[in-house]
Design brief:
alpha/beta; Rossmann fold; 2 domains; six-stranded mixed β-sheet; 63% helix; elongated; ATP hydrolysis activity; transmembrane helix; ABC1_TM_sf; ATP-binding cassette, subfamily B, bacterial
Length: 599
């Protein structure tokens, strides 16, 4: 790896063929290898019991036929012993099947547990631009539906495949001991089965992939419709939303029935082939018995063997359909696992440890695509200084704070914290230094106490309560029936927007970061709540280097420095009064808000 090249850990080429995908999936079963070996041993034992029983039943038929033909009577003692052994073999086969299914359930669940853990770790390592391009619904479908499909089909298909292979080998061996001619007739099913599989497989595989992809899109549409149902109703968008649902639903229906049809059609074709071969075996076998070439009991056993031989062949279509389903889901999982991760640099970038600035943007270049948004951005922020960032929509305000947190990687220049290039920190080290309070409050379903403690999992109760008091959360929480143990529902709408924002501020207090980012933190609340939030934020800003992104200029009058951004660069900087006197972009924004407020 060349110097300065980012390390993409764990990235492998996406498998383009069925065998490659299956091979990669099997690699996740290594930790269950001893269980798979045990399953194979049990499968061999169970198959031996299955294939030997027809031969014993054939000998029982021969014993009865010989006794009647010789008019010496039937040896019921010997017959009972044979039937008793066969019964015991059937019981043994049933126990083997049960244990085999149980062990394969453990194997399949262990495999998908490993896959889920790796997928979760991978998602945490993906860069922000990945989530800009992929819907949450599709990712949820991969993490839940595809994983469940792999677990279910892996258990069923792998067990059937393993048993079928061993059964076919054992049956062929015993059929050859009876008649090689009849064995050749029975073997006609093999090339014909291969031809049927070859005809149906491509269409089935193609539609399985399409079905799973559309399923992800449908999940995304449903999630958006549920989350935005108020907006949908407000703008009379119900009909359009239903049309979108119908489109995805129709595509899913088309791909679904085609995948099931082409995958399932192999089974009746195999059954027809099996019946035709069975008729031929009966005809040839009857001639052989009449000629005295084989015993009637052996013919009976052979007919049972031919059924056992054709059964896994006819079931192969079902097994193959399950394997195609596994591959389709596995490929979707591997596509996520093969995505490029956040950059982890091997080289050490130049530091400037004698720098007096807490944060320094030094000739930074950045663009979301090929075109640069920031072409030569520089900014020095002193320790404990509050920087307000102002500008029209699209000026680069939020981009600036995202670059500081390395949600996106810069194209040129450097960003230094305490004189150390931010790329020399791990993402974990960097984010420990930076706290953030967003416009869109993010709280999870759980207690208010747990949501505050999210800022510092190691905090004591006293520290959590102190943070809550500092953020003015304690006052309204104490009035709730359950207090800090109040459980926020999935939408967190059992408390007000302002209260949610105060909880996020308390969380930031508890995290106690060196650098604080406030991104439009008061834009979604009423004036009275805004005043309370501003009061909490002023306490939060004390002693910290802060970046405040705001549309409401009234919230940043007291900032140490206000920078005005336009098209990714700083066009003005100074305090509130200086910028007003300059009569530039800031003055225009201020006057437009002032006139709007007066109106």
């Amino acid at each position: 790896m060349s110097k300065g090249t980012p390390m993409n850990r764990g990235v492998k080429a996406t498998p383009k063929d069925l065998s490659g995908t299956l091979k990669r999936l099997m690699s996740y079963m290594k930790e269950s290898l001893w269980l798979i070996v045990l399953v194979a041993v049990i499968a061999i034992a169970g198959t031996l019991l299955q294939v030997l029983s027809p031969k014993l039943l054939g000998s029982a038929t021969t014993l009865i036929f010989a006794g009647i033909k010789a008019k010496t009577g039937i040896d019921f003692t010997k017959l009972a012993m044979i039937l008793g052994i066969v019964g015991a073999m059937y019981v043994g086969k049933a126990i083997a099947d049960f244990v085999q299914q149980w062990l394969m359930t453990v194997v399949s669940q262990n495999t998908t547990k490993t896959l889920r853990n790796e997928l979760k770790t991978k998602i945490n390592e993906l860069p922000s631009d990945y989530f800009d391009k992929h819907s949450n619904g599709n990712l949820m479908s991969i993490a839940i539906n595809d994983m469940d499909n792999i677990a279910t089909m892996l258990q069923q298909s792998l067990t059937q495949l393993l048993s079928s292979v061993i059964l076919v080998i054992g049956v062929i061996w015993l059929m050859l001991t009876i008649s090689w001619k009849l064995t050749l007739v029975a073997a006609l099913i093999l090339p014909c089965s291969f031809l049927i599989t070859k005809l149906f497989t491509p269409k089935a595989q193609e539609n399985f992939k399409k079905y799973l992809h559309v399923q992800g899109s449908l999940n995304g549409q449903i999630e958006e419709a549920f989350n935005g149902h108020t907006v949908i109703k407000s703008f009379n968008y119900e009909e359009k939303s239903e049309q979108q649902f119908e489109t995805f639903n129709k595509e899913m229906y088309e791909a679904g029935w085609k995948s099931k049809f082409f995958g399932g059609s192999m089974m009746p074709a195999m059954i027809l082939l099996k019946n035709l071969v069975y008729v031929v075996i009966c005809t040839v076998g009857a001639v052989e018995v009449a000629a005295g070439a084989i015993l009637i009991g052996n013919l009976q056993a052979f007919l049972q063997y031919s059924t056992q031989f054709s059964q896994p062949i006819s079931q192969f279509s079902q097994i193959w359909s399950g394997i195609l389903s596994i591959v389709a889901s596995a490929e979707r999982v591997f596509e996520v696992l093969d995505e490029e991760e956040r950059k982890h640099y091997e080289q050490t970038f130049p530091n400037q440890l004698d720098d007096s600035a807490k944060v320094r943007f030094d000739h930074v270049q950045f663009g979301y695509g090929e075109e640069l948004l920031m072409k030569d951005f520089s900014l020095a922020v002193a320790p404990k200084e509050t920087i307000a960032i102002v500008g029209h929509t699209g000026a680069g305000k939020t981009t600036l704070v995202h670059l500081l947190q390395r949600f996106y990687e810069i194209s040129g220049g450097s960003i230094k914290i305490d004189g150390i290039d931010s790329r020399n920190f791990t993402h974990e080290q960097l984010h420990q230094k930076i706290g953030m309070v967003l416009q869109d409050t993010w709280l999870f379903s759980g207690t208010i106490y747990d949501n505050i403690k999210y800022g510092n999992p190691d905090a004591t109760k006293e520290q959590v309560y102190a943070a809550a008091k500092a953020a003015f959360v304690d006052e309204f929480v104490r009035k709730l029936p359950e207090g800090y143990e109040t459980v926020l529902n999935e939408e967190t709408n059992n408390i007000s927007q302002g209260q949610r924002q105060l909880i996020t501020i308390a969380r930031a207090f508890l995290a106690n970061p060196e650098i604080l980012i406030l991104d439009e933190a008061t834009s979604n609340v009423d004036t009275r709540t805004e005043m309370l939030i501003q009061k909490a934020m002023k306490q939060l800003l004390v002693g910290r280097t802060s970046f405040v992104v705001a549309h409401r200029l009234s919230t940043i009058y007291d900032a140490d420095k206000i920078i005005v951004m336009d098209q990714g660069d700083v066009v003005e900087s100074g305090n509130h009064q200086e910028l007003l006197e300059a009569e530039g972009v800031y003055s225009d924004i201020y006057n437009s808000q002032f006139l709007s407020d007066v109106a």
